[in-house]
Amino acid sequence: MTAAIPRQATEPTAKQRLAILRAAKSVAIVGFSANIARASYFVATYLLQDAGYRLHFVNPRAAGQQVLGLPVHASLADLPETPDIVDVFRKASDLPGVVDETVAIGAPVLWVQLGIINEEAAADARARGLTAVTNRCLKIEHARFHGGLHLAGFNTGQITARRTLR
Length: 166
Known about the structure:
The protein is an alpha/beta fold. It has five helices and seven strands, in the order αβαββββαβαβα.
């Protein structure tokens, strides 16, 4: 059995996460990959189709390319607008730099994906005025709040936590 990762007292509650998702109009995906097998690509396709956010992709190695009809930017500073949420798909050791960039552009929310844990960077982000959501998938949270979450992360069209008996 795997031990649960303890949540910090400053982690946004479910109601607060819902409010973040409802208020947001734009999301920057830092560490976006054009590889369809990567989680960032899957999240991007969901957000484009089902969430109605303006998306911005950030990956210095793919800068200048078009993916899913959108340009890939080299850094957060290169975006045409300040995103409401910076969604991070980078190694935990890269988070301090992402926090610096997020603060520099004035984005209010840093959202760090599942499995990416750097409590020092999250604490630094909060100390510098950011709302930091850590170790959570933006796609899963969006689907959960909008009635479309299935165990595998797909929209089933059912709003229930119970499996239907056949």
